[in-house]
Amino acid sequence: MDLKRICRGIIIFCVCFMLSVHSGKSQVKKEILQGAISKIEITPDIPVMLYGYGSRKTPSEGIHDPLYARAVVFENSGGKLVLVSTDIGSYGNEAYATIQKSILNQFSLKASELFLSAIHTHSSPILSLNRESGHPNNIIYTETLNQKLLTVIGDAFNHLEPIHTGCGIGYSPVGSNRREMRPDGSITLGRNPYGPADKEVLVMKVATADGNPIGAIFDYATHATSLGPRNMLISGDVIGLAEQFVEQILGEEVVSPAFAGASGDIDPWYRILPEFNTEPGWIPEPVLLGTLLGEEVVTVFRNIEMIHPGGAIKTSFETLECPRRTRNNENSGTSEDEETTVPVNITAARIGDDAAFIGFNIEMLTEIGMAIKAGSPYKHTFIITHCNGSSGYLVPAELYKEGGYEVTSTRFEIGSAEMVVRKALRMLYDLK
Ligand SMILES: [Zn+2]
Question: What distance in angstroms lies between residue 18's CA and the mean position of ligand 1's atoms?
Answer without folding.
Answer: 58
